[in-house]
Amino acid sequence: MIQKKICLFGASGVGKTSLISQFVQGIFSDKYLTTIGVKVDKKLIECEQQQVQLMLWDIEGTDRYSVFQERYLRGASAYIIVVDQTRTSSLIEGIDIHSLAKQVNGCPTVLAVNKSDLEQHWHWNERQLTDYQALFDLSFNTSAKTGDNVELMFQQLAELLVAEHQSDD
Ligand code: GDP
Ligand code: MG
After folding, report:
1. Ligand 1 probe mutation, 8, 9, 16, 18, most atoms within 8 A of CB
2. pTM for the complete prediction?
3. For labelling alongside 23, which of 43, 55, 59, 95 has CA 20 to 30 A away?
């Protein structure tokens, strides 16, 4: 069995905890419970005829001026930057975190533009967004509420990691 640690980063309230609970338990809640510190969830999936244990690290929302918690990236195989398409500031924060994180760990990266079930409410046009998406290996428009693209995102990331794992052997 292959184990892969995946960190989720992003401003508070973007939906990191919700994406994990949608993926792991198939549950969505409207209640907002702030994550304190870090919480780790596991999910075993099958990928390329291999069992892959995903260790999902849900890291407390970083606020713009607080210190980026780079220690969580130790041993990570990938990280997902989550942004909320109803809040422009969350994309700026996500890009900031990404530029710090990629200096620490050169692993594959994913951009999750979350809350796709809500009306888009930010001032990025398609071209700017495409430029930002190009900074990541994979990018998805997700909804932790409806589940749209949530499973697909984790599955495609796992496929990328398994392919990488095999080429390391
Ligand atoms: P975190 O701070 O990044 O972990 O964010 P949470 O997962 O706690 O979510 C913050 C709030 O946004 C909660 O009230 C969630 O119910 C809500 N939320 C999260 N994801 C979505 C989504 O995809 N769509 C909608 N409509 N609400 C969401
Ligand atoms: Mg949380």
Report:
1. 18
2. 0.95
3. 95
